[in-house]
Protein 1
Amino acid sequence: MERVLEPEVMDTWEEAIEYDSMDFTEVNTAFAQRAVELGPPAGRVLDTGTGTARIPIIISQMRPQWQLTCTDLSKNMLLVGARNVEKAGLQGQIQLQLADAKGLNCEDSRFDMVISNSLVHHLPDPLPFFLELKRVLKPNGAILIRDLIRPASPDFVDAFVAGIGAEYSAHQKQLFRDSLHAALTIEEVNQLILTAQLEGVKIYQSSDRHWTAERAWAEGGQ
């Protein structure tokens, strides 16, 4: 099935509120737990495409030793995220920034870990993101990137959408359908990692609908 792009940014207030209202607690918690397992005991962590900051809030509660810089291109997502961060009392640990993950305004090798959940399928060309990830990450830094896998056929798309539950609205189901069409295959992710020359990254199918690219933090690296 060919890739069909969707908008790179969900930037209306209504979209941000609707996205934040969707219950991703289980998958967000699983992502946060894996980040903690792969990451350093303490340090600077970059979360790209943070959305409404639900994942960094969970991570911060697990790892108070981490300082998280969380970026997104959507002003309204970050406005909702700031509200969530304040409600959790984590303003001292989580910094939200309006920034493009493909061109960050920070020095080389700044971060001990880079994480990203459900960003890559929004990018028309994901390669600049992977190149920027390599630039801002320390050579020994950890990586955790997770996103949807593009199904092999429209029938699989229909099955996945039908399986997400009656609690989601028709519009939310359409958003999910669009995201599946815009997602990458594992083969495409492998090629991006190779082209960006990101070494030691493991890429695998982590659920029936997700791929994961990960690398553990290496103690003592330069």
Protein 2
Amino acid sequence: MKILGLLNAPWMIDQGSLTEITQEYINHMQGEKLDFKALLTDQQRGRPAFEVQGSTAIIPLKGVMSPGMSFFTFFFDGTSTKNVQKNIQAAIDSAEIDKIIIDVNSGGGAVEGAFELADFIAEAATIKEVIAFSDGTIASAAYLAVSGASKIYITGKSNQVGSIGVIARRLDVSKMNEMEGLAVNEFVTGVYKNSLSRDKPLSETDAAEIQLMVDKNFEPMVADIAARRGMDPQQIIDMQGRIFIGAESIEVGLVDGVATLNELINNEAGAPILNQNQRANMTKDELKANHPELFAELEAEAEAKTLNADLSAQAKVEERERIQGINAACFPGQEALAAEMIADGKTSPGEAAIRFNAVEKQTRIDAGAKIAAGMPEPVAQPEPVVTDPKPAEPEAKTPEQEFEGSKELQAEFQDFETYKAYLDATQAGHVRVFQGRDE
């Protein structure tokens, strides 16, 4: 498998090792290219497949694990999982070998090949005694690989065991391409086809897809380890990828005891240290009589586990309702956005509805703007002509108002009563006017 293909694939490895691998890859890409096949041939020339002491085969599982001989095998003194399988098979086929010790010092490696090696070792342990031993680290894919061994031993206080989990790292060189004047155009058949492409910035859709890929690899890893070590899968999930140091790894059930390599070869190792999973093989009465404090501790743990199981069941119901709520609030065409919010494990249906509405509103605004941009300019209309209205007729005045408003009438009639009598007589036809005088 090509180096970049491995780097972009999910890993079962501790964080420090993956960081070191990534940096070495970058150095390799920026510097002089090496002929790894030639180097690996020289490195392997004359090296025995594995060591045999008496009737014990000692098979190494060291450094970064990858499916075959590669960049990692050279730079990190890594291990080909296929070669480990071949060595174990050779030891099984040998009539002179009755015990196999897998000497482990590895932080893990690629997902590819790890499950197959784990299954092979578990099957081998049903044919001959297979013991996993470490004077350093047994982490992630390396732990998965030896979880089916007959027993797992460490040397003492400083061993690192665990980091059970999956990690994916996506290199983004789009800015570097831009600085160098490079433009990479990718034409794909689906939104997830180039989620791991290093030549484009990471999108929310890419992140959700990569996380889903990591989760899908983690589930069978947990199931296999739990089954082979007699553990509750939830116990492994609750470890959250933690590395346990020395005796801690025995207490949580990942390791069976402490021994040196020579003690294991010479069958001088003491009985495995009783861990919390193996204690369950004792009867309840024996444990209560001989270890009352431990009995009380385990009873408390059992009560807590029951409570956690109830909480876990409730959490599953709540998660199902959360997913249904998000899907119900989704507008047509927003399925990818719904998948992202479901995958993040925290977006509530209410938050999803707000986000869906905002996206839909913006979509309609954009559509309206697009339509408006294609419409012809409006024709200017002339301003309407406003004509002055017909002046209102003045209101008719009363005789008294006419008298009060006319000095001539006041001078001629002296008072309103005389003027009123004149108006009445004129209306009755009793008055005629000649040359301006009344008769």
Protein 3
Amino acid sequence: MTRTAAHSLPDFVTNKTVARLPWLAAAICAGILAGALPAQIAIIGFGIAAILLCAAITPLATLVALVILAPLRALIATEAPNQLPLDIGQLSLLLLVLVWLAYRVTWKRTLLPTTRAVSPVLIAVFIFFCAASLSLFNAFSVSAWLNEWLKWAQVLLLIILCLDLVTQREWEWLVFGIVVAASANALIGIYEYFGGSGAEHLVINELFFRAFGTFGQPNPFGGFMGLVAPLAAAASLGYLLQGIAIWRKDHRVSGASLFAAVFYALSFCLLAVALILSWSRGAWLGFLVSLLAILFALPRRWWGNLILLVVALVSLGLAWSTGVLPDSIVERMNSAFSETFASSDVRGAFVTNENYALIERLAHWQAAYNMAEAYPLLGVGFGNYEEAYPNYRLMFWKYPLGHAHNYYLNVFAETGMIGFVAYSFMWLVLLWITWRTRRHPDPLARCVVIGLFGTWVYLAVHSLTDNLYVNNLFLTIGTMFGILAVLHRQTFGSVRLLRHS
């Protein structure tokens, strides 16, 4: 504003006041809309406006919004008065890509990702993606194959976007978004357990209800809790160590670090409680093993890893044998072990109320075996278990459950030996990369890597009884892959440097 114009305004109006006028006008308009529109529409509108405003500042904000909104898929699909053209996770990912492209065009960058987006994590996932793609030649349904194929394409895209957008410590926001999404779901699940759902088919002891959050089913909800709980626990420890390091160096208390440590500790407690209330035996078993994995990975030296693991196992054994744990939980865990590692032939088995769940799961396992036997190399097609099930099911088990209730068998049946070997190779590489990235010089980043190690172990165990790449959980897992890729790059540099290390 020129001096002449400034002198023409009242004395109380300054350049700073003029600069604030657009924000004041926006606030007034927002207030008018909030009063005129229904509360639900106003909240949705303000949420979209907030996401777009943050996206204009940085595309990373859109990625954080994605991991928070993606788990709402089933809730929105069942409760929204009008159906969306795509589910909330896919819409968020589409917005992320558009914002990312606009950001690169605005700053006159190439539209193709640079070599910074190359990572051993990306390569490992890409190998499985290519192997699974070959199953198209045997696919019973091309649309079912395409649906599953697109899931893993989105996982690859998320890894690339994380590597491109995260340059320094922005990964902390991604961890925050993932934990916030899981904690909000945990609160909903706890409310449902004490009668907030009214789902009669999920009644426990005629008093409570199995928690299912926004997922509609307890098992994937428990899976979500179990995937994020190790990350929350490790992040809490990491921020505590960060606060201690600041105190030792500068002799001052870091309120931000302590607040973050408390936040993630409380989040872990919420997730652990919600996981237990899901009454999912696969989630319980995976959670237990993931905590042991974290304890094993914490020390830098192998003998420290071994000592911590032995102490944890002995403590667990004493608690189990002395009756410290509630009988209902012990009985539930015993059945989890028996069902997870059962392998008998159930053709012609006598079904009762007590063994129905076990027989049903084993029947679907045997159907997966039959598919793999018929198509040993390429399987029946990625995502085609349900489509092929009528041809390979056991007698009396007419209706499919959507998957084999064992993701390893599911991959074997759908993608054959080629896809199964590639999937196993992918996870062996990811575990090795995660283990090596524990060398990260930053204590917080090192703890987050250890939390991711616990997450991978949890996923490996729970996958023995379920498929967790559902209800947009694959978007959360893809973002976790991206965080690992970023931290690995910060630890070792580029792939070329890694080869010479």
Protein 4
Amino acid sequence: MKVKKHWPKLNGWQWFNLTSLLLIGGLLWGVVVGNQGVGGLLERWGSLDLRWMMAAVACVVGFWVLEALALHWLVSCLYRGVPFHSNMRTAMIGQLYAALTPFSTGGQPVQLIYMHRDGLDTGGGASVLIVKSIVYQIGLITMALLPLVTGYHFFHSQVSGFVWMAWVGFGVNLLVTAGMLLLAVYPRATRKLYAFGVRVMHFFRIVRDVDVTIAKAQTQFDIYHESTLRYEKKRGALCGVLAITFIQLISLYLVPYAIYRAFGYHEPGVLLRIVSAVAFVTIVSASVPLPGGSGGAEGSFLLFFALFFDQPDLLIAMLLWRLLTYYFGMVTGALVMLVSRKRQRAVVRLPL
């Protein structure tokens, strides 16, 4: 039986974001080639240690698998019958749409659609994703404390604007986390936000009847808040997901170190400083309101990793880092969406 393939369906804004990202990627490539020349670039790439580059790829794939594992664990707290490979698919599709939108906001809505196809209630799926996002933000903020705890004086003396970037990065991410907690804890706030969104869509003639649309969502709101309350009783599961998140982030933060070693560098004691630097780069780029933190990610990487790479290698290292940690996930997510099937699963919602 021939499997019908479904190409990713992107709206005009998402296509604009994708085009922007490709242009930024092309610009990065042009800057590197202009700096090194095609021959110099190919020669430097040929000299990289393949074992460490494979280690970098393995770290990225490990990040994806751990993302799916955390999602699977949270889903299993509410439903029985959703296989791991379905949550793996959902996680990878989230990688694609998160990359296409500012602050990674587009990933969860599309993931919710695919979770509904797996048989989850909309309210239950939304609860899984909001709790997952809160745990991830907590892990992100905690890991970003590394450069402040372990190397504040070093980074403050070596990186211009370090304190200012810390205020912005932590401030924006703390506000995002607080907003998610508000949606999880206060049912009234969630309903008001949804009603506001419906009225905005009504203004743009996307929704016809405001009252009917809000009324239809009432049951799912009840399921959402009941599911969120269930997680309050599942503290062991939440701690497990938080532990997975820490390992997941460490796996991601080891990618620049593997690239560093692939270039032939090896300075004793540099591992912790590189992990601390990329943790800080990640939280700074997460506060940039562009898809993938574009501009902020590249700029902060160049700023911090000039401490570890020689100038001729710095641009190439930055390009490799973005290719592996950002564009690689986009391409893989698009391929996963391309081959995924549309089908409704029979799952069992566990009693609250």
